[in-house]
Amino acid sequence: MVFCNVFMLKIIDLFAGGGGLSLGATRAGFELLAAIEKDPLALETHKKNFPNSKHFADDISTLEGRNLLSVLKLKENELDGLIGGPPCQGFSVMGRRDIKDERNNLFSDFFRLVNEIRPKFFVAENVLGILHDRYDAIRENALNNIPNDYVVLDPIKVKASDYGVPTTRTRIFFIGYNPKYLSTLSEASFLPSEENDDVFVKDALEGLPVDISPDWQEEEDGWQPYKSFAKENHFTERVTGHIPVGVGDLSSLKRYVERKEVSGCLGTRHSKEIIDRYLLVEQGGKDTKLRAPRLKPDGFCPTIRAGTGSDKGSYQAIRPIHYDFPRVITPREAARLQGFPDWFVFHRTKWHSFRQIGNSVSPLLAEKLLKIIFDKISTH
User: Fold this and answer.
1) 71-102 in b/e burial notation, b at 16+ Cβ within 10 A?
2) Cα distance from N-terminal residue to C-terminal residue, the chain
3) Residues near 128 by beta carbon (within 8 Å), at least 6 away in sequence
4) Run of H or E residues at 10
5) pLDDT band per the 50, 70, 90 thresholds, residue 93
6) I need a labelling partner for 349 at 20 to 30 A (CA). Which of 39, 294, 317, 356 fits?
7) Is the dihedral of CA 222, 223, 229, 235 positive or negative?
8) Which of 80-94, 109-123, 126-140, 330-344 is the least confident region?
9) Chain mean position to CA 335
10) H or E element: which one contains 251?
11) Which structural domains are found in the chain, ordered by start?
């Protein structure tokens, strides 16, 4: 078990969700001063994993930068970074791609707050669909909020599997900075390193329980024994440890370390018809009816989708099928495939756990991108 304690620079996470970007940032060396998240269940998860940070359930569209700085006792230019993943549903090719979706305006609100707060840098994440020409006006209006003295990089397309994460999830990152405080950055600064090893599904899921009972439906049922990895590498070290000081739920950490149990191993009750169908799906193929993908042990996991909250119809996204068993994966298996550590806890239910995991930036990816920025600030 490795804990990390490094020099802190202050950041705020807007649209913080369950905390993928937040965890990547704290592992990169930043102090998470505050997180803003409107979804009460995601905020609950974030509070549990980041107990030392301040949390706000504000609507970003009505949040004013000067008020936030005042509450946090910060002056202009004192915040190092503003990060976040504005809602992407209106831009996603998997959704309705509604140009009038009111959530699209929150993308602009992120950059409005950049203007009002003037952090040393910003990082905003979104789906590939946001670059479609139908959203040109939305992007232009949003980016026009950025102060003229900032350097703004071209949107960067990032595929998680290129950075040592076992999923092909691909997203767009908008990055900018004030050159007074950072050494020069370019799009090339964020290219994947040749040192990044591929991590495949079978490697990522090593040691997790596989004989999952469909009767494991309650939070306590989800706590199950795990086995250690056979060998250490960057992925296994990040999955099992590297806990930033002040991060993590103490009671869950204690159980994970002392009892060697991991949470989120919740089962799903499948009908015999579904089990029989899943048995026929080849590894790397898809179920004929639900179109659920079956994982390939020596391949990458496709993008894990989040589904929707109760305010948008309570839609539960299709979950991947385990490569060896006729069942969908557990929340803990999904967390591994997204690059979350085993000591990180999610909501007590499968539905909201999958929503929080599917909506999150991989903390492994976030750490690598934000560490590049951290090094530029600390050496400037």
Assistant:
1) ebebeeeebbbbbbbbbbbbbbeeeeeeeebe
2) 32
3) 93, 157, 170, 171, 172
4) strand 9-14
5) very low
6) 294
7) positive
8) 80-94
9) 10
10) helix 250-258
11) 3-194+360-378 (3.40.50.150), 201-358 (3.90.120.10)
pLDDT in tens, 328-337: 999 999 999 9
Neighbours of 293 (CB within 10 A): 19
- pLDDT band per the 50, 70, 90 thresholds, residue 104: low
What is the pairing mode between strands 224-225 and 170-177? unpaired
Please name the residue that has the structure tokens 């910060």. 74
Q: What is the DSSP letter of 366?
A: H
Q: Answer yes or no: are the C-beta atoms of 84 and 110 closer than 8 Å.
A: yes
173 φ/ψ sector (left φ>0, alpha ψ -120 to 50, else beta): beta
Q: Which residues contact 254 (CB under 8 A, 6 or more apart)?
A: none
Known catalytic residues are: 88
Which structure tokens are listed for 326? Answer: 């006729």
> Tokens at residue 199, please?
């991590």
Report residue 149 as tokens.
Answer: 């003295």
| Cα-Cα-Cα-Cα dihedral sign, residues 21, 82, 158, 164 | negative
Task: Label each residue of 48-72 as H, E or C.
Answer: HHCCCCEEECCCHHHCCHHHHHHHC
The answer to whether the beta carbons of residues 122 and 81 sit under 8 Å apart is yes
Residue 361 in 3-state DSSP? coil
Residue 234's contacts (CB-CB under 8 Å, 6 or more residues apart) are 164, 197
- Per-residue burial over 153-176, b if 16 or more Cβ lie within 10 Å, else e, is bebbebebbebbbbbebebbbbbb
For the chain, the 3-state helix, strand and coil shares in percent, each to the nearest 5, are 35, 15, 50
Please count the residues of the chain: 380
Token code pair at residue 272: 């015999």
CA 151 to chain centre: 25
User: What is the mean pLDDT of the segment spanning 230-241?
Assistant: 93
